[in-house]
Batch of 4 targets.
Target 1
Amino acid sequence: MYQHNRLTTNNFNFFTKLANFDYVLMACILLLGLISLATMYSTDGGKILFHTKSHFTKLIVFTIMMLIFSFVNIKFWFSIGYFFYVIIIGLLIWTYLFGIKSSGSQRWIDLYFINLQPSELMKICIILCLAKYFHRMKLENVNSLYAILSSLIIILLPMGLVIVQPDLGTSLLISISGLAVLWFAGINHKYFIYTMIGFLISLPFIISFLKPYQKLRVLTFLNPDRDPLGAGYQIIQSKIAVGSGGIFGKGFLKGTQSYLEFLPEKHTDFIFTLFSEEFGFVGSVILLLIYAIIIYRIVAIGAQSRSYFAKLFCYSFAASIFVYITINMSMVLGLLPIVGSPLPIMSYGGSSMLATMIGFGIVMSAKVHSQQLIA
Amino acid sequence: MINSSSDNVKKLNSINRRMFITGSVKFFIMIGLVSRLFFLQVKENKKYLTLSDKNRIREWKLAPVRGEFHDYFGNVIAGNFEAYQLHIIPEQVEDFRYVIYRIKDLLELSDKEFKRIIKKKNEIKSWETLIVSDNLSWKKFSKINNHLYDLNGVKPVISISRNYPFGSNFTHVIGYVSQANEQDIENNEAIKKNFVPGLKIGKVGLEKSFEKQLIGSNDIERYEVNAYGRRISQLEFQKGEKGKSLRLTVDTKVQQLSNELLKDQAGSICVMDIYTGELIAMHSSPSFDPNLFVFGISQDDWQIIRNDPMKPLVNKTLQGNYSPGSTIKPIVALSALENGIINTNFAVNCRGHKHPLELYGQTYHCWKKQGHGFMNLRNAMKQSCDTYFYEIARKLGVDRLSETAKKFGLGKEVFGNLFSIEKKGLIPSTQWKKNVLGQSWVLGETVITGIGQGYIQTTPIQLCLMTAQIANGGYKIYPKIVMDDENKVSPIDKFTPLYKNSKNIKIVQDAMFASTNEVRGTSYRSRINNPKYQFAGKTGTAQVKKITERDRELDLKTFQIPYEERDHALYIAYGPYKNPRYAVSILVEHGGNGSTTAAPMAKKLFKTIIDRHQLRESINNKKYLDI
């Protein structure tokens, strides 16, 4: 329709694509990558060891992948939505059947060169799939029983496959990502409210179904001091690390809590603790600001996009990223019980970074092809 | 198209509205996260900083360096030496098995010791120090040092430890140190405060009495540790203070001589300055080597000491309650004179065993079979005539006797509470018997108390003090063994006269002189004619068991009687007679006879003591010369 006045062709050439690039977002992602590398270097005790090297390699590979993805037409991403979903579901089933067991859970599949965690990929895939599902749907049909039910099935299927791993954290994040799409697609806000109320009422029953270690986490969250050397240890040490950081932090490579191995899981879920200890309040706020800019840019890209699919994807992806960050930080700062949820880009872990970078790639593609209409 | 476009608009409106709501929520959550960060990192920063330091900083105390003991002349009698030790930190050793077997060969460890080391290794964490050997000889230590190239992770360490250079000579004065046990820690604040595993503390003697001054204070090392308690780096080293060194009044030469004199015999020798009360020597024999205890005594050594029939663990000088025998006679005589019972001319006829003193059917014999004949005080003391003293004791009564005896330091601890082991002895009185035994006093008991038998019991150190106070003209002194003891307040009644009439003291002194330096004196054979060394004394022979009629008839020589039944030999003396300065008390357990066993020792002692007097004085004067 109107866009033909401005851009006469759908065949963007390379340079126009390059010009359409969101350099602020790109810069923020690169900055985040650098920060995460520095932090990883610090977790290795100020030496370039396994984690740093591996994180660096992944960062390079996935950033390049993201750049490649951003040149791929948004239409392509739209078209593979369901296919991608089916593949990941297949991988999840494969994981369930033949996955690698490690510390009591079966989350990974061995791809020989990398151990892939399909549940992480599902976090991005579900957005893609649901965005495609709602793209063509008329607003009045969105609230139809059929639409709601089928979208719920789309969400619940991977959730179930992830819960049995068992991995409650990731399955919750998957469902939140999915629900974000439903929210933006325009499902009646009453449903959300009812679900929320229903969830709160059934919470005691849900807790009774939790595994003992999960119950322990909830109890520990309510009172970390009940077992300071056992279940409460992580959260106490984490709070000590963050709190002792002060305004300007203890200095790069000088975080005693992490350096002296008081911090558990410092490479992965608790990476923010280490960062916060070494760079203090100022550093933490700057990190939060970088995340905020990234989220803002994603939303802005969504707003600029002409296609509903792109909008839906960007908004939902931004909301998901935001939720990941919030949950991770709240957990680390003692505001939520401990659930396994990595901090995007910062945390060590290939699958999580792969998923995030795919997301960024699609967002960037939406930006580059912001005027692309999808029929 | 229109339809779809209007639907599109609706959809866009919907999504944008919801985006707005979401954005607002995100904003507030962000604010929430930032304020939580602010709360933890800015507001509560101090609290978490303290917690973090508590996490990472740990203190290690090192054993304090113990104060030394010096003798009067500044010779170290309990010092510190550098013990050569061998430490291993198991985790720093690549091949522990190889290293430990290599060490076993080098140190020639027995299988028993080796097993103990292996057991110890299994009890500690791999980064904790394993002490393989705590006191290596220099030879073995250097051998290890020569082989260090293939003993990775083995650390030869020089550590400060207690050393008693004079071995057994001073054991009963200063005691010994050994590892503190739980009770020691519980009972002593100073030990509790400075305790580190392996801390050595005084177990007996002055080492125990002066623990507080001697112990010093710990070196403190502050380390940064990781979550598993492993030391990462040293943050601070706080030097502790060495314990206070104490100077004793003891003269090592005299002490060593005492050791030699009592070699292979059980007994005690005390030498005291009669004016200052300083102990020149204080020895109890047999003694034992305190160095054995420093690193824990071996079971074999301990059994040898414990089962020795001469009881080396008993400090006979302070703990030994003995009948004083005839050495009490100067006090009996003095008491009689003081109370006006007798004068110097009062005489008693001693008629030998055929005509003993009889009281209520009991007979009381003099030691001399033939009897002494008519005896006045001077002669009776000289020849130690028992009959004479039976008679004056009978006239004097036990209560007046015990009053004088107590005045001169018998019947109570000489050092007050300095030595926890010191015994009081026993000076009986009618009241005492009534209170303790619930019986009335019998006159016969007074009679035998007059020759130092019966209930009366004294320790050798008490006899020494008694002699000193007679020798100095009858003035009260307070014995001491530690110079400049800051805890001790100078007593007010020092040098107050203990006599009613100083002439009486002179009479007793003269009688003691006669006993040693005149023909027929009991210790005449041990006299020294040279006035420089001339001394006056009184022998004593304390019965261990009652002498029966049969014994009296047999009249056995000392060597014919079984060891346990032989009499204790005692001797008290002071000298030089003309200008007295030192008092001596000697006791030889089961020595047989005071005049043949104990008195000759006094002769040798006085030679040395008086020879060293000049030197002792000059040390004091030197202080002023140095300035």
Target 2
Amino acid sequence: MEYVLTTQGLSKRYKGFKALDNLTMRVPKGSIYGFVGRNGAGKTTLIRLICGLQAPTSGTYTLYGVDSGQKDIAKVRRRMGAVVETPSIYLDLTAADNLKEQFRVLGVPSDDGIPELLKLVGLEDTGGKKARNFSLGMKQRLGIAVALAGDPDFLVLDEPVNGLDPQGIIDIRELILKLNRERRITVLISSHILDELSRLATHYGFIDSGRMVKELSARELEAACRKCLRVEVTDTRALARALDGMGVEYEILSDGQADVFAQLNISQLTRALDGEGCELLSAQERDESLESYFVNLVGGASHD
Amino acid sequence: MIKLFNANLMRLWKNSAFWGSMGVSLGMGLFMVVDSWRSAQESGGAWSSTVDAELFKYAAFIGILAAELIPLFFGTEYSDGAIRNKIIVGQSRLSIYFANLITGCAACVLCSAAYILGCAALGIPLLGWFTQPPALLLTALAGSLLMTAAFCAIFTFVTMNCARRSTSVVICLLGAFAAFIGAIVIHSMLEAPEFIQGYELSIGGQIVPAQPQPNPNYLTGAKRELYQLIFDLLPSGQSVQYCSLQFGDPARLMGLAAAVCAVFTGAGGLLFRRKNLK
């Protein structure tokens, strides 16, 4: 698999505080990588490091295979765009002028691409309105447009839906999906709004106290969070025979407990168990969400 | 760096603080001439002024203007977070620093030009043609522009290494005023007479001049040289000299201004390279 970003033992220490601790991660090309962690877990610190805003205390990272210690890293950064924390826009300029400014920074010879970019983020009708008069969602979308000015193929978004209203959240979500699907932009999104992330991400990295706790694909996560019916019976061997007869997938957890991965008719199951001389003691539907998976993974106590 | 400079110029062109500063400079140029002409008229010919005398008075306020304009303009990059956009796309920190320094200098030179143009445009018809030799005027122009660059280097140093715009505005303005007060104090010490003329009562009951007494506050030897060096080194000290067109050694003043530029730019660039940005 080809990776856009990899980090190896990346650490960042501030005065008496380790924000990143030997973090290793890999962001596959073409993915939407959900970077999940509590406030203060180290998400923004990692983003600051890969954006060149800060230098790591130890460890390295590679962008498109170029090591952070190499001189070429500056050239490779030209292929990325980012919105770190708040949208980086000049509040006393209009949306179009903000993009013009970034085009100048990038050395883009023509401003022809500006209307298309504004349309892409839904700001084509803002005219002479200064960015300071934009809503938070509009500022966020303008920040993304500025990040897209260099036509990047790696986009880093730090908490992009923080503070947005429901419509703003939907707009940003659709924009990210569009960028990923239509422009094949790899997206790294940090967030602690897990429900929102679960609608987007194709890969996940769970970070806690500056360390990567787990990295997995959305498919692997789906398998781990699979919807099932947890049943308690007097004899799981009898249960296995009954479920085999019904052609249903299951997993025996103990002598008296099993997870059944199907929508079961309880009366039918009871009859089948009766035939095997087994009693159904309880049945409970289980549906582990990304949220509960995260809580199980990093523990419930807050670090805030 | 040219890309960054272009981007800065585009933003400068749309910046209200810059146009406000240009307006103030032009207005000051016109005001100085009118004020001088009116004083000459009121004196009934006993006193006259020339356009040369007014031409470099901008040196007295360009430092204050730079102390307000530079942190306001570049501090916005921190307060709005836009400085990140430059670094994320791979622009080097030194390029960003130098582009900002050059833009700041360009803005202040334009403000100086607005003053000079306003002053000359109204001053020549009202006060007459230049009376000083062109070489002296050109030397004062070159020297005062280098002095402006020294102010810009100091304020860029503060602004680029201070993440809060309001803090950098306060530091620059207070620093500029302190430097001007310091320069005026040193100037008065250097200008103190070597002897104090006293008076005494004669036997006949008349007040007559006494034997001049040595001034205890008169600076001599190494101490005088040190004070003169500080006065020449401080851009505010140079501004006092250019303002009155009374400067001793212009090469020394320009050399010291260039040294201030080099030291503050070198130190500022190094600090900014290592700075953790948020």
Target 3
Amino acid sequence: MLTLLKKTTVPALALLLSSMAFADQPGGTYQFDKKGAHQFVTFKISHLGYSWLYGRFNDFNGTFTVDAENPENSQVTATIQTASVDSNHAERDKHLRSDDFLDVSEYPTATFKSTKIEKTGEKTAKITGDFTLHGVTKPVTLDAKLIGYGDDPWGGYRMGLEASTTLTLSDFGITKDLGPASETVEIIISVEGIKQ
Amino acid sequence: MKLRNDSQRFGAIAVLFHWLVALAVIGLFALGFYMVDLGYYDPWYRKGPDLHRSIGVLLFIAMLLRLGWRFISPPPAPLPTHKPWEKISAHLTHWALYLLLFVAMVSGYLISSADGSSVDVFNWFSVPSVSGHQTGLEDTAGLIHYWATWAVIGLASLHALAAIKHHLFDRDDTLRRILGLAPRTTTHISNDTHNPS
């Protein structure tokens, strides 16, 4: 009985090990870890030229596909729910959602879809894509960095990226005057994907 | 003029409450309407909302006191010349105004305190948040505040037009009573005496 069990277990184990070895490859499609909240879309804008105001979007999702052989064929898409803007101040958030800024009832989502990925270093790349915000679509280039990847402790496989870019608000039709120091906003996207 | 209301006339306290609240409500509406479109560098960009919140909280306290006073010292009976439909519509308008004022004030407070922060009343005191941080509460409360305040102004206009109608066309004492003036004595009665009946 014991030997019989051993006989069937060993090939099963071998199969499992080989599939784990296969999963060790970074190539594949990754879903943002929205559920575990290992993802952040943060923005940073100057207040009067005197300090930085940080805010974030709490609700967004996306995927990226990694071509391990040919990284430039990788892709990333993301959709942000604009109403989830959060700058830790209810009155300001309400104002940001109004038609002075994001106009979330008219434009409930902002989207990014990559069109070109250019490797610039061992772990860095320029990700160019179409970014739609406030109903305006414009090409935007993100400076991206691969933070790390590999098995997680719970049987999955993860990869984390961080990317940033600076947008001029008026390019996207957001023209409310916040002063000369506050015409641009820096966006920092930090995400962890779980391989599907 | 007596402080308390009696069965015929409003007392000084009810008259004062009425006009104080009227002034505050119209002022708050005008200020609210004006302040939401101010530019970021406008000196009133911060002063306007600070004043709006402070007066709003004080109005809430005044309205509680006013309602309390209404129970202690009930308003006079409607004038005998008022028609039944006038009495019913006037009462409905009064109570709708009370209700909408509270909806407007509470919703306004909920916008400002939806992130758990307190509402400052000048530099005198601050009202803590009761909701704590509630995601999206500022938007729901904002929508309610917008429509409730417009409804208050709409009903208050109706209420004012009715008072003017009573004063100019019916030539009764409806408006004089709430101004704390003595009833008119002359024209009506002297005209009546010339009636052949």
Target 4
Amino acid sequence: MTELPLQTRKKLGLVIDLDTCVGCHACVISCKGWNTENYGVPLSDQDAYGAAPSGTFLNRVHSYEVQPDTGPAQLVHFPKSCLHCEDAPCVTVCPTGASYKRVEDGIVLVNESDCIGCSLCAWACPYGARELDQAAGVMKKCTLCVDRIYNDNLPQEDRIPACVRTCPSGARHFGDLGDPDSDVSQLVADRGGVDLMPEMGTKPVNKYLPPRPKDQMPDIDVLAPFLAPVATEAKGFLGWLDRTLDKI
Amino acid sequence: MHPAPSVIFFSVFSGLGFGLLFWLGLGWPSSTGVVAFVFFAIAYLLAVGGLIASTFHLGQPKRALKAFSQWKTSWLSREAICAVAALILMAVYGAGAVFYNQHWRVIGVLGGLLSLGTVFTTSMIYAQIKAVPRWHMPLTPLNFLSLSVAGGALLAGQVTWALWLIAIAGGIQLATWVIGDTRFAASGTTLASATQLGGIGQVRAFEPPHTGTNFLLREFVYVIGRKHAFKLRVIALLLMCVVPVILLLVPFSHMAGGLAVLAHVAGVLTARWLFFAQAEHVVGLYYGKR
Amino acid sequence: MTHKQPVLDLSPPVSDEIRKTTCYMCACRCGINVHMKANGDGDMKVAYIEGNRDHPINKGVLCAKGSAGIMQHNAPARLRKPLKRVGERGSGEFEEIEWDEALQIATDWLAPIRAEAPEKLAFFTGRDQSQSFTSYWAQNFGTPNYAAHGGFCSVNMAAAGIYTMGGAFWEFGQPDWDHTKLFMLFGVAEDHDSNPIKMGIGKIKARGARVIGVNPIRTGYNAVADDWVGITPGTDGLFILSMIHCLMKAGRIDLDYLARFTDAPVLVNGDPASPDFGLFLRDANGNQQVICRKTGTLTAFDQPGVRPDLSATHVVGDITHRPVFHHMAEKYLTEDYTPEAVADRCGIPAKRIRAIAAEIARVAFDEAFELDHEWTDFRGDVHKTMTGRPVSFHAMRGISAHANGFQTCRALHTLQIILGTVEVPGGFRFKPPYPKPATAHPKPHCGVTPGKPLDGPHLGFVQGPADLALKPDGSPARIDKAFTWENPMSAHGLMHMVISNAHAGDPYKIDTLFLYMANMSWNSSMNTGGVMQMLTDKDASGDYVIPHVIYSDAYSSEMVAFADLILPDTTYLERHDCISLLDRPISEAGAAADAIRWPVVEPDRDVRGFQSVLCDLGARLGLPGFVDDTGGQKYADYADYIVNHERRPGIGPLAGFRGADGTDTGHGAPNPDQLDRYIKNGGFFTHHIPDGAQYYKPWNTAYQDWAVQTGLFDAPQPYLFSLYAEPLRRFQLAAEGHGDRQPPDHLRARIKHTMSPLPIWYETDQQGNDGFTITALTQRPMAMYHSWGSQNAWLRQLHGHNPLYVPTKLMREHGLSDGDWARVTSPHGEITVPVLEMAALNDNTVWTWNAIGKRKGAWALGDTAPEATKGFLLNHLIHELLPPKGDGLRWSNSDPITGQAAWFDLKVKIEKAPAQSESKPATPKQKSPVPAAARNLAWKTTD
């Protein structure tokens, strides 16, 4: 059913730290690898070695330049995948019931055997989180690695999404955002985590931690000059050195 | 949004077909026999042909029947149900007119209303999409409905109705454009809100995630031909509205009537192309494009 | 609630088997879990690759390249069989031949060379991770002409680190991520080492520690830096020396550390007339001498209880000897290095330089802390705790790929050392086998005897003119002119000069060029077009000027087209390798570690691991290390070598599981089960350093003893850090006229100027650069490794073409907007390429991603692939020689000390150009030796 559950028992999702993401695309490819081999049809690639290679990816890393009023421009790497919205417009538009939000954990999934590939869910998603696989004609999206996170065949520590497991800089965090005491909820509270496009009313579960303020190092010290000289030239310095060495 | 021919043809022709069915259901014209057969055949050709065209953009058309299941939430599902219901009722009603020389009024009116309902559900598929601010407004269903009813009147030979309705539809079309042009800005969605980086400073898209294109860019970020939009709007309005009105005002001839229909359809097709081509999905912001 | 959901299998099987090996998608050498699944026919296929959580390098994480390994392993560009050239060189026309024929051809070319003139073989390897093996082969062959790619990569970094402090950045050391509070990262091209740096940055950012990035380009690690210093390229040394000036002047330096652990107190001969002028005062045993501050007497630095005096001078005869620290004070406290004096050249305001220096000092000294580890230093002094100075530094290729890069890297190490942050908690830590001073490394050898091995290892660390690789007539012994007066301390050779010199016959002609894994006709060469011409050039008799070219690669690279004989290598999942402590291991600061690769799948093509081919070829040539007592082949393959070769008795390529029963570490007899033990252990071996030996390693008795037990050294070798690099001074002395071995006159001034024993900064040679005012740089994308990534269906979607990034100011000045084309001209060449605006970029710098541009026909890509149409190389703009000076000499575009290729000295000008259909210059297509690739991919192993 494409009715959204009134509430889900958990709100599993990702917290993405924009202060730490170095834009390496590790999550993008790890996701591609896992989801090609696992849940549903493989993520196909068209014209893979030709003029216009274009494949299905469930996670892509954008980058933005931000020019503050003062100071140098900043560069922000910006991974983006399904935000597993509480009010997921992609689910309700689905005519077949293929798209649904799991009542247990809030993960938004596509049941591929019911998908007719009408793309309407992708139209409804403001975030570009869904891509129609061109080989299979069905809609693909982030599953939050639902086939990893409960998988008894994986060691406990590996029961996390592939993108989180692989992220070298630790910029991706996974957990229950419905539990205010969870690590991810704490992180969101501490760092002022935000929703993307809040005006869309989708209530995303995934949160983004904004970059910390940059280029804030003061170049004057109001209390004392930086690095007051002990001497002005070599000779005086050696005098200071002798006096200091006597003390240590 | 990518102006896929299948979707443009589907929505324009099914709109016309259901518009014609609406008039036929009301009994205007209340023809019977062969004449009725021709009217119903045209209406079904348009409506069903449009529906078939719409399946061309499906990734898995063989599963299309599943689309009837989610009427509680999905406008697409409702459209499917509405369309089938309308087509069945109108088939019954049409059979009465063609074969039994009967006009079963209740069935006709119900079928006519369901035909309009189908057009409404079609329009709501677009109007519901918040991520495309240009579509997300009450004018979208008005635009679809007015064109459907006006085009239907034209096909049904209801000259007076058609004159007025085409003029009204033209007005609504104009309003749809003028107000539609302001919708993206009014939505409040910007690259700053999309990235939540606006607090730091002016945000500009830098490197895209992939150097090549992808499904999202092909489907949602269509920028070709936008610079001709104004010219196309003028052409669309002339063809859809001005030309048919003039042709209907001159003394009636089948030639003029036929030309009026052709002009109108060409105008609506142009307008519908613009409906997609000019619609900007907010996801384009993430790519520094609209 | 009647919400119906499909029933999902939440525990699907992940794979049928996990095989643990080592990644080779870059030089990082992470541990990987290769998940294998049986396909429909029951064959085990590679299904999914993830990081190995137990592995010391990556601890489970994996970068984009690593995860895309499955696409590399299955790339359509894989060569299938040995190839013999049948068309003209460069055309790519080959016929497939059998291995026997291929090896016979190679033997027929090489055997006569070895018998008559071994130096006529030039054997150079690129991103080879088996250098201790390939160099051993070359040494046994007897040619002096061997090196790997270090000379065009980052020898400045490696050599400066080893000459200054006995170890370098990159894979050889790391910040103390657990304790550092301020991390300062220098230089463009954020690659080495890959995952550990990302993990480290993530770790310290999670703690809220500060990151300062010094880089003209604010991408990647610099994008997450809290403070960004968009420095003018090539001026890092000046900026660092100015900070040294500020810190010394303010007395914010670690005097105790300098006195105990560095040569700052070592006495230097001050008599300009003396042949030892500027050299250390040494005792009869050759030990550096200091004055003990406690006793006031002259003593060797390492005597028990000595407290070296940073200040006291000493007179011998009438010669005053002053400590190094006096020289430093004199040099660095001058007005030359005030922030105000350097600000304009560095493009950094003077106030900012002071502020950063002050912040470094504040964290180093005001946030110092103690770790409760007792340790004993080499003088026998017992220290109750270990003092932490939580400031750490790391540098990328950017600061080293300039002709002043060696001294710049030395300056950076000097900064680290005066702050007392090397080998202390919170600072920079070495990874075993480092620390290891330059004096403990071999010296270069070039003694050639026909039919015999070379007289020792090719590469090493010279200590003075006596160690240069010169022939008796003073001419260069090596084809690349490494270890000559032009670049005396070229510890990694000069691979970028090999083809140019061989073509010019300068210093001599060669017969066979033998390359491995080095795309020298494309992105790995300067002057790409010129190199292609040199490789195809013929002499008057119609023969190729470089008569034979043998090349080994796994893939259909651009270089393949220029070889006469191709020996196809395996992919990294099909081969044995060892990542050895004899070479460039996977150690971490707290442990020695090495690793293997093993064939997790067998090749489905007629290809062989290159090292195994060398075992075979070595035996066919009768090389002493490769034949047994009966003259038969000694090592059946590389795996056999890895297990059974002993470099010294009991010391082999792998340190783990030695001895007959596999219980010995470091030392021990070969263990026939060694590789199995590695495989069972996850493909690697780790040997931890005990707690009290974790820091202060060069001087820590416990570490030195552990290193001896582990087989890293034969005896403890504590040493002092070399703020004052005496080997440099020895070359200066020669240039001043002292000694028997004298430089040619045209190099005297340059040697005197550049080879300062204390780090300096100098402007690189700007001749010919008039009118070329913009610096042009390249970086390697984190998701791509040189050319290898472009054949990878997943990675090439991330970086399928490369724009030239142009700063906002230059975009406006030249009337450019995104997508426009620009003509970029250097003194050497011209390219026409698409541009893209970037604001977070030094105002006078343009850059692009390295090695995205491809030649049509290479890498099994379509002819209209964006890599071949829009992609481009900056290499066309960079010449391997400086512009002619009118003296008839060929001046290499390299660091005059180490020979490091000065890629980043490139100066250009740009102008708007009409839109192009393809980037210029366009190289004609090469014929592909592999079939065209499938158009679409929808991968599923079990299908």
